[in-house]
Amino acid sequence: MLELAVLGLLHESPLHGYELRQRLKATLGTFRAFSYGSLYPTLRRMRDSGWIAEDEGDAEVVAGAPALTGRRGKVVYKLTADGKEKLQELLAEAGPSSWEDETFGVHFAFFSQTDPEVRVRILEGRRSRLEERREGVRSGLARTRERLDNYTLQLQEHGLESVEREVRWLTELIETERNNSKPARP
Length: 186
Description:
This protein has 186 residues and is mainly α. The chain folds into 2 domains: 2-92, Winged helix-like DNA-binding domain superfamily/Winged helix DNA-binding domain (Arc Repressor Mutant, subunit A, Orthogonal Bundle), CATH 1.10.10.10; 116-181. Helices cover 66% and strands 5% of the residues. It is built from 8 helices and 3 strands, in the order H-E-H-H-E-H-E-H-H-H-H. Helix 1 (2-12) crosses helix 2 (17-28) and helix 7 (116-144) runs antiparallel to helix 8. The longest helix has 32 residues, at 150-181.
């Protein structure tokens, strides 16, 4: 997940670690915590794999990033040709791993760089996964409703409503994607 997000952001422009972390939070939401303790080992692995390169250039020039002190602040990360290929490979993944709660948001954040057919497959897979979850919650509620206290029941119903809302949202997105991919009539 983090590799896809880093590659997607570096595809837009080279960034230093601080600015990359800020963009990760802005792109993927403040609810996901990205510590330097997880970011820098990932960056090292990606560098060692040849997907990104480090440049000891001036960090002030990069993406309007604030000047930082120390060696770490001066390292600017940029995408390599191998990194561009890896990004395209990750963006093309439309299997079950792209539908899960932990990874769907990352894939969705980079949908503008993703092939339209892949976007539809990911959206359909996510919707299918949530429909299964919704049916499981419904059947569980039907079996245990009488035994639940009011607060637990409200929590379960809230969860069901959240899943139903996301299913409706995904259905709308799928319809929009399909309508936008149809060739225009002469």
